[in-house]
Amino acid sequence: MKIIIINGPNLNLLGKREPEVYGSQTFEDYFETLKIKFPQMELLYFQSNIEGELITKIQDVGFSFDGIILNAGAYTHTSVGIGDVIKAITTPVIEVHISNTFSRESFRHQSYISGNAKGVILGFGLKSYELALLSFL
After folding, report:
1. Which residues are annotated as part of the binding site for substrate?
2. Is-catalytic flag, 30?
3. Are the C-beta atoms of residues 62 and 117 closer than 8 Å to each other?
4. What are phi and psi of 14, to 5 degrees?
5. CATH code at position 125
6. Domain span at residue 124?
7. Which helix or strand (DSSP H or E) is residue 93 part of?
8. How far apart (Å, rounded) are the C-alpha atoms in residues 39 and 101?
9. Has 109 been annotated as catalytic?
10. What is the distance between the alpha carbons of residues 42 and 131, in angstroms, rounded to a whole number?
11. Catalytic residue among 22, 30, 112, 129, which?
12. Which positions in this protein are listed as binding substrate (predicted)?
């Protein structure tokens, strides 16, 4: 089973950015933990701060992978383009957020991804990614 985790803007700052919200672990370190926990899966990881690069990556894998776990960061709430590409592909997408977006600013309550995703997991810290992986088993 081939799964890619795609992270959007500022998620490269995990471990440094607002540790009270996002924790103190880098995503790269956490990703190594996921690979150990899920040896039956081929896990890949991609991160970009650029909306178009995220869309291109989703297009590249969206017809050949078994699953996409997407944390589009702030683009979740602003990008019609990312919402459209999720609708256009055949690979199932799980939308993930580290924090509970509904307990934060009101603009974070809107998602252009959720309506086209297989499911949404939020508010469980980095464990949200693990829960998303379990959904593909």
Report:
1. 71, 77, 84, 98-99, 108
2. no
3. no
4. -55, 140
5. 3.40.50.9100
6. 2-134
7. strand 93-97
8. 30
9. no
10. 16
11. 22
12. 71, 77, 84, 98-99, 108
